[in-house]
Amino acid sequence: MTLRPVLAALCALVAVAGFVAAPQTAHAQIEIDVNQGDVRPLPIAVPAFTGAGRGAEIAQVISANLDRSGLFAPIDPAAFPERGLDVNVQPRFDAWKTINAQALVNGNVVVEGDGRLRVDFRLWDVYSGQQLLGLQFTSTPENWRRVAHKISDAVYERLTGEKGYFDTRIVFVAESGPRDKRIKRLMIMDQDGANPSSLTDGSYIVMTPRFSSTSQEITYMALRPTGSSIYLFNIETARQETIGKFPGMVFAPRFSPDGGRVAFSVERGGNSDIWVMNLTSRAQTRLTTDPGIDTSPSFSPDGSRIVFNSDRGGSSQIYVMGSDGSGTRRISRGGGRYSTPVWSPRGDFIAFTKQTGGQFHIGVMRPDGSDERILTTSYLDEGPTWAPNGRVLMFFRETPGGAPRLWTVDITGRILRPAPYQGSGSDPAWSPLLN
């Protein structure tokens, strides 16, 4: 991490449905260069917000979010030289320097006459004594955790120059029971593991859930005694429907970036090909006709290309083709077997699972196959999914005889941590930032 002066700038207005954000003048003094290979976490202090309730919890959620990113080092509250900070009064910066706090976040919580929660916060550069950010969020009291996530995103963006990823959700497969009779339910939770809830009852096996670009729909595969189907699940209404019948096993569905299409694989007679369905007309188009096994399609952010894995060359490798099935070319060049490719929301990398030397790895490569980097190595790492800012990946890890657990790693491979959710889970999918 480096601290360096940058040009003065006004903080941006945060406009989010369900919230009201009001900006105040700010001058940038510090930032974290996330492109450096060795980033030292920035010491930051997040005292309990003052005012009417939830202040301590909001500060705890912000501190935990920033800590998990690996870019910030929240300071132990026991060391804080001031408490009960008024958002309208400058902190005593000399006192905060004695504990090496370089950034300070303080805030206030008010319950308004209509019952809504109003949260004001300030982000300070301790060493320059400048306010970097000042915002106000208003929402219903039950949304206090989302307010904390939005403040976390604002702090992250102000100090790194890149969008945050904290006001997001994860859908995944919760696994329970013995390995030969495993119950697999679809679950959804906040990115920090809070508010987990089941979307299916475990009476049938679910696999490969994926969010739409609006975060309001999920597509997933359901395996029942009668066969496999691809479902669309509306999170708001809990309504679900199949996208059609296919003469074979269907799996690995993925939305296009505009949410208008779903790409998936159809297995028939030992061969698997990639298809795409227009969700408005329900017209189906077969994109590959190779006798090899083609699967795990994932659209590029602009929807013009699809990455997938295929064993058409003798082993499972990564290929890219146009979204109409044209111009297929292999991009993976290393040894081993590649699977589950996923295009980054930024478009700059493709994440994948790689199996080589008796180990599993999560890695990334450029869309042309260059700059391959292995980020993790273990007995079993699989199923990467991107945070919406394209800086962090979630995947699942299994140990011999153990249950699968969710983990995160950044694109440098340096910040590798278990996800906050303590239960068993596999096949995660990260939502876009919520509106």
UniProtKB/TrEMBL annotation:
<keyword id="KW-0732">Signal</keyword>
<dbReference type="GO" id="GO:0017038">
    <property type="term" value="P:protein import"/>
</dbReference>
<keyword id="KW-0574">Periplasm</keyword>
<dbReference type="InterPro" id="IPR007195">
    <property type="entry name" value="TolB_N"/>
</dbReference>
<dbReference type="Pfam" id="PF07676">
    <property type="entry name" value="PD40"/>
</dbReference>
<comment type="function">
    <text>Part of the Tol-Pal system, which plays a role in outer membrane invagination during cell division and is important for maintaining outer membrane integrity.</text>
</comment>
<keyword id="KW-0131">Cell cycle</keyword>
<dbReference type="GO" id="GO:0051301">
    <property type="term" value="P:cell division"/>
</dbReference>
<comment type="subunit">
    <text>The Tol-Pal system is composed of five core proteins: the inner membrane proteins TolA, TolQ and TolR, the periplasmic protein TolB and the outer membrane protein Pal. They form a network linking the inner and outer membranes and the peptidoglycan layer.</text>
</comment>
<dbReference type="InterPro" id="IPR014167">
    <property type="entry name" value="Tol-Pal_TolB"/>
</dbReference>
<feature type="domain" description="TolB N-terminal">
    <location>
        <begin position="31"/>
        <end position="132"/>
    </location>
</feature>
<feature type="signal peptide">
    <location>
        <begin position="1"/>
        <end position="28"/>
    </location>
</feature>
<dbReference type="InterPro" id="IPR011659">
    <property type="entry name" value="WD40"/>
</dbReference>
<dbReference type="InterPro" id="IPR011042">
    <property type="entry name" value="6-blade_b-propeller_TolB-like"/>
</dbReference>
<dbReference type="Pfam" id="PF04052">
    <property type="entry name" value="TolB_N"/>
</dbReference>
<keyword id="KW-0132">Cell division</keyword>
<comment type="similarity">
    <text>Belongs to the TolB family.</text>
</comment>
<dbReference type="GO" id="GO:0042597">
    <property type="term" value="C:periplasmic space"/>
</dbReference>
<protein>
    <recommendedName>
        <fullName>Tol-Pal system protein TolB</fullName>
    </recommendedName>
</protein>
